[in-house]
Amino acid sequence: MSEKIYVGVDLGGTTIKVGICDAEGNLKQTYEGPTKAEEGAEAGMERIAQYVRTIVEQSPYEWEQVAGVGAGMAGFLDIPKGFIKFSNNLDWHNVPAKEILEAKLGVPVAINNDANVAALGEAWGGAGRGYANCVCYTLGTGVGGGIIINGKVYEGFGGMAGELGHMAIVPDLEAINCNCGQKGCLETVSSATGIVRMAKDAVERGDRTSLALIEKITAKDVFDAGKAGDEVALRIINRAAYYLGRSMASIAVVVNPQRFIIGGGVSKAGDILFEPIREIFKKYTPEHAQTGVDIVPASLGNDAGVVGAAGLTLR
Questions:
Q1: Residues 139 and 185 occupy one common structural domain
Q2: Per-residue pLDDT averaged across 166-195, rounded?
Q3: H/E/C letters for each residue in the chain?
């Protein structure tokens, strides 16, 4: 068998997920096991190498077909050197991950942050397949992002490109402090956390809303209430969508992507979120920067990270 395969590692605080992709970004097989981050980085690197070898052994492929291994992880990374400076969810410091894994596996290894990797996954094997230039948002507890230019992740100087959630986009009079230390970030209004915060504020103000009947409000509760016609919930959803659309309008005249892809738990809300985003984008984007550009939901779900990681050494 001469077909080359690419192995991706999605390194999480609890679980390490590993996948095999072909050269077209099709996910062929997955495997996962515990991270056991508390055992330290050395044990963690050995566990990653073990899982990579295990998935290949369990697959119909031979080790000689492995063209490369990529790993996506949260934290502060020196991406070109493949160095983990600090991973807060693992509590690992100063780990030469690329060097260690290449020594253990004998194949090229690349690392990147989890948001970039998820974006590459969608671009390569998901909703961005066939699009050379796209921008991906991940709407969850925070707002993550990734920029794909000419089929490759754009990292920028220092690896900070694509931090879409930390665009300071909310006007000062409406802005609140963000966990990053800045004020008025997109993440404060368009993440699940931001949506829940706005809902709680509305309830505390005494606004007439069905959300007042819910003890622990979630973002899904807000979207469900909006779909049922709750005006307060609709106002919150439209505010989150407004700033997402405005951020895309800004990105469109800088990067001019062919497609915006929105993933993460919040994206599952559907048209009640996507339609106002598209309307705002159209309103605030110059005609030539919006022509042929679409805004779509992500398609890979929890597999985006492992698919994107697999593509790091190829793309």
A1: yes
A2: 93
A3: CCCCEEEEEEECCCEEEEEEECCCCCEEEEEEEECCHHHCHHHHHHHHHHHHHHHHHHCCCCHHHEEEEEEEECCEEECCCCEEEEECCCCEEEECHHHHHHHHHCCCEEEEEHHHHHHHHHHHHCCCCCCCCEEEEEECCCEEEEEEECCEECCCHHHCCCCHHHCECCCCCCCCECCCCCECECHHHHCHHHHHHHHHHHHHHCCCCHHHHCCCCCHHHHHHHHHCCCHHHHHHHHHHHHHHHHHHHHHHCCCCCCEEEEECHHHHHCHHHHHHHHHHHHHHCCHHHHCCCEEEECCCHHHHHHHHHHCCCCC
